[in-house]
Amino acid sequence: MSIAVARRSTLPWFGLTMGLTLTWLSVIILLPLAGLFLKTSELSLDQFWGIVTSRRTLNALKISFGLSFLAALVNLVMGTIIVWALVRYRFPGRRLFDAIVDVPFALPTAVAGVALTQLFAQKGWLGAPLAELGIKVAFTPVGIFIAMIFIGIPFVVRTVQPVLQDLDVEIEEAAASLGANRWHTVFRVILPSLIPALLTGFALAFARAVGEYGSVIFIAGNLPNVSEIAPLLIVIRLSEFRYADATAIAVVMLLASFLIIFAVNRLQRWAQTRIPAH
Amino acid sequence: MSLQSSLANPATELRAYGPTADLTVSPLSSRRERARPETGTAPDNPRTEPGPVRFIIIALAITFLSVFVVLPLVVVFASAFSKGIGAYLAALAEPEALAAIRLTLLVAAISVTLNLVFGVVAAWAITKFDFSGKTFLITLIDLPFSVSPVISGLVFVLLFGAQGFFGTWLQAHDIHILFAVPGIALATIFVTFPFVARALIPLMQEQGTQEEEAATSLGASGLQTFFRVTLPNIKWGLLYGVLLCNARAMGEFGAVSVVSGHIRGETNTMPLLVEILYNEYQFVASFAIASLLAMLALITLVVKSVLERRLDEGQEPRDH
Predict the structure, then answer these.
(1) Which of A39, A208, A273, B265 has the fewest CB atoms within 10 Å, counting from its CB?
(2) Tell me, what's the ipTM?
């Protein structure tokens, strides 16, 4: 990390503010995260591998990553539909629904968790009719899936919405005047130019769902190997004072989320080269 | 000024939608675009879909948002008031509930204040000067957005827990960080770390340094420049960051749950009490606390949209 003044400014406090920033950043974020990796380095590779590939850990990781992936796919499709309705159409309550998209961002996760559980429990407003159809949601993996969809939807909508709004309408008009029907224009012209934003939204929703805890644990049932997510397994290992186990799982998850950030950054660079600046 | 342009570009702004951000600091540019009038809604417009298709898309969007977002909100209030307003108020007047509310307010006050100061300091360093490694520094500030809340709590257990790096030293000196207010505050500071800085950086970047340089060349001191020139320019952005930071601080569950120890009446914040009461089947009490947090979320969203409109209008006329 090389941070050096490259420009003489007449403004004061460069050294002071930069020093404070780096100190505070190190104390609050970097040192604690470094501690996590340091703790893991106390394990031998065999021990680490043994923890990560134990049946319960592997199942928890599979549940977290697998269901997050499926939920992000649902968010991708439904998010696109919602963005399309909000940007392209006028309908009563449009502004209200636009604002409502942000609720999963703002609602504390524990509140979302108990509300979704209440809603989908066997006697709940949605759980009861679903139970009659033979579908159990609460306390099954389906419940985890539902909570992950809830938590991820704003990421796709808020990433794709500005891009669709910005889209040059002349391209669409050109396609139409060249004889493309609406179906072709949407799928061959509009959607391709949304791909970077769609993939970014997908990745952000996926990453959020993988790490999610509060809104999932209430509705999950938390049965080991069946409906136990990886963040919960970290908490369980901690309460058993099995710090090494907790740390190893955390490192795997942390590395996965760093990979996702990296992918998102690459996606955005790609998006910039595809879409000329406006 | 190449760094400035790279800071203002969509790639960096989009990163504000960090993977684990509860409340996203939406990029200024997209807020502006959103204010633009929509086009292509006339029924005979060649650029829109046939009527039935439009109907299906709107119906799908409304149904999805109603089921997944509106209904959970309604359930919170319906359950909180299911035994009448008397039971609701009684639940909130419980000593345990009051203790949780007090602790939540205290932790939010500590973490918002510290992150407010940090956010302004970091944004000043990053936007008023040129240096290499700027983008990397912003990535580091964003880091907590992409860390699972549980891991945000875990790192402090590893530092301050009984088996942690400083565990024995802390025990020897009888200092309590974990399972006490300092630990809860630290975990909350960690998860809310980027909010204020992230709200200020694009805004201050856009405003540049000319006004401040003019003020200092006219003989204003550094503090005068900051309070008379910079602060009036960034006040709405600052409020925006504080608002989102506060909402997350009061609502944080995972990270706080790991470091709190769940000592009743002592280390339970409001979200933790929601969990405990729910697990004890005290649904009215649990949802009564949850309803306060839900109201906080709704108020936050309303104020957020007001502030976004202020920010869209550009700089407010100066007070003097």
Answers:
(1) A273
(2) 0.90
